[in-house]
Structure formats: structure tokens, C-alpha cells
Design a protein that fits this description.
The protein has a single domain, classed as Sandwich (Jelly Rolls), CATH 2.60.120. Helices cover 4% and strands 42% of the residues. The protein has 1 helix and 9 strands; from the N terminus they run βββββββββα. The strands form 3 sheets. It has a 4-stranded antiparallel beta sheet, with no helix packed on it. Strands 5-4-7 form a 3-stranded antiparallel beta sheet, with no helix packed on it. A two-stranded antiparallel ribbon has the order 2-9. It is globular and about 35 Å long.
Length: 104
């Protein structure tokens, strides 16, 4: 069953590393969201931008508010029945090392 949530990240806040069991479609309503993706790429989304987070543990990522104003998102989750909207995972080793990209 689809779920829609409004998410607010205060300045300096993070989502923590996680993945989604189902696809998520997101619109940034305010602020600037900075995401580090499973392959080390960094994507920046600003108010008015939309993005898609694909399902599954291969698509781990973290969202951060590196700005000075709150980031406000509206997220549409296509979560499989009985599954959580997100699953927390440890920070990847490549991210902790400051190496920049996965496999580097």
C-alpha cells in the first residue's frame, strides 16, 4: 500500500545510511538535500527538484542537510506489504575512510 510522508531535516541533520524495500518518489519542497549514493556519487537536490530512490539493499544512501534552513521533503513510498519504509544499515567502509567513491 502506498504511503505519503512529509519529512523535515533540520540544518546539520542526516537520515543515516539506509535503503528502501520499495521504490520512493521524492519532491524537495524547501532547502537543499545532499545525498551520497551506494556508488559514492553525491547528488544535490534543491527546492522544486524531484528524485527517485530505487528499492533494495544495493541502493543504500544517506541524505544530509548541509545548509542553514530546514529541508522539507514529500515522499511517496511504494512499500511492499508488511515491510518497513526504510531499513537502517551501517555506514559503508569506503565512506568512513574518506575515500570518496565505492571501490576506490
Amino acid at each position: 500500500m502506498p504511503v505519503v510522508r512529509t519529512i523535515t531535516l533540520a540544518p546539520g541533520a542526516t537520515t543515516g545510511w539506509h535503503y528502501h524495500p520499495g521504490r520512493v518518489e521524492v519532491v524537495v519542497l524547501a532547502g537543499t538535500l545532499t545525498r551520497t549514493l551506494h556508488d559514492g556519487r553525491v547528488e544535490v537536490s534543491r527546492a522544486g527538484d524531484s528524485l527517485v530512490e530505487e528499492a533494495g539493499p544495493v541502493h543504500v544512501h544517506v541524505g544530509r542537510n548541509l545548509g542553514t534552513e530546514p529541508v522539507v521533503l514529500i515522499a511517496h513510498y511504494a512499500a511492499p506489504e508488511g515491510r518497513p519504509l526504510a531499513v537502517a544499515v551501517p555506514e559503508p567502509a569506503w565512506s568512513r575512510s574518506g575515500g570518496g567513491t565505492a571501490g576506490a
